[in-house]
Amino acid sequence: MSKIAATFSALKAQNKTALVTFITAGDPAPELTVPLMHALVAGGADILELGVPFSDPMAEGPVIQRACERALANGVGIQDVFNYVAEFRKTNQTTPVVLMGYANPIERIGPKAFIEQSVAVGADGAIVVDYPPEECEEFAAAMRAAELDLIFLLAPTSTEKRIEQVAKVGGGFSYYVSLKGVTGAGNIDVADVANRLQAIRKHVKLPVGVGFGIRDGATARAVAEVADAVVIGSRIIQEIETAGKDKAVAAVQAFTTSIRAALDA
Fold first, then answer.
1. Which entry of 49, 138, 147, 241 is annotated as an active-site residue?
2. Is 60 assigned a catalytic role?
3. Known active-site residue 138
4. Which pLDDT value is given to residue 186?
């Protein structure tokens, strides 16, 4: 059983919803990435998504785009991301870490090297936004063989055929994008999300997390009624931007604590 699967299993036994959090590696400063990861866990995050900075993050709204720009300006690349995971693992061997990003950095070092380095540093899986499931069965199989989970996105526009393909090759959990558009935009229609998850679960037996548009405890709580996990990214990046470097770690922990309290209420 993968670390991600074990986490969902343990949470289900406690009747709890998973909290999945996202930050961009290297933002707002390289030396703060690992402290921010620990702050998220201290605040109650169950799974960490660590964004690999990329110059054209097409699925991201302006908030995460700015985070990528800051990280790239700080000189942070995929090798640094591996180093952050290795550093985090020195004191936390249990919280799953998922590397999230785009195909280009992976293709540059090669899928084989990406898998080998992910295993070496203790990462648990990846979300590659622009790897469609029907075009990367070989990569998914290689990830699975290395006991890594390849997590796929599903959207309101996903066809039944795409859902079936994700069910076939996906691992860890499936990530349902609750909105048409980019991260950090709009308001979630929870009733619509519930209907879509019902259709997804006809095929996908993995846990389903919901992200894009979860901004506060009330929304997180509402989504938790129908999902196995809530995923929060843009709102955390906003906390980092507002707090500034000196107070970012404390602000992120406080915000995560508030979301965890809402989920557990």
1. 49
2. yes
3. no
4. 55
